[in-house]
Amino acid sequence: MANTMNWYSHLNTPTDAQKTEYLFWQFERLWEVYNDAAVVDKSLPRRVANDIIEVSYNVIVKEPIPALQHICKVAGIPWTVGIAKRYQAELATLNGYKVNKFVDLPEDIRAVIRTHYKDYFEAFGYPM
């Protein structure tokens, strides 16, 4: 995103470090605003308002059908045989799908990410 928007939205081209810092700031701000609106109990375990459904990416990937059943239950959507068949068919199309492989980030960048995204990682149980 930063590389595609910056060339025409600034009078001067920002450095990579400035773009990276902006992305960190932007995520932190979005996460802060979301949490202020969503979380009803700041203590652990995390508890969000009844009209919000939080599901981590890892849960959806590891157990997609139970995750979808949970989403439907919380949203008040009955889980039917038809819905189950539909999702099973969708999952079958993903056979052989491989997630993207990214290069390992240098430790200094990983440390910055852990600092900036600590609350997010903890909220969804991602390893730090």
Give an overview in words.
A two-stranded antiparallel ribbon has the order 1-2. The protein is mainly alpha-helical. About 60% of the residues lie in helices and about 5% in strands. It has one domain. The protein has seven helices and two strands, in the order ααββααααα. The chain has helices spanning about 1-10, 15-40, 55-60, 65-75, 80-90, 105-115, 120-125; strands at about 40, 45-50. It is extended and about 55 Å long. The mean pLDDT is about 85.
Structural class, from secondary structure content?
mainly alpha
- Could you give the order of strands across the largest sheet? 1-2
Q: Which percent range fits the helix content?
A: 55-70%
Low-confidence stretches: none
What string, H for helix and E for strand, traces the elements in order? HHEEHHHHH
Radius of gyration: 19 Å
Distance between the termini: 25 Å
Mean pLDDT: 87
Shape by Cα distribution = extended
Major beta-sheet overview: 2 strands, antiparallel
Tally of distinct domains: 1
How many strand units?
Answer: 2
> In what range is the share of β-strand residues?
under 5%
Number of helices: 7
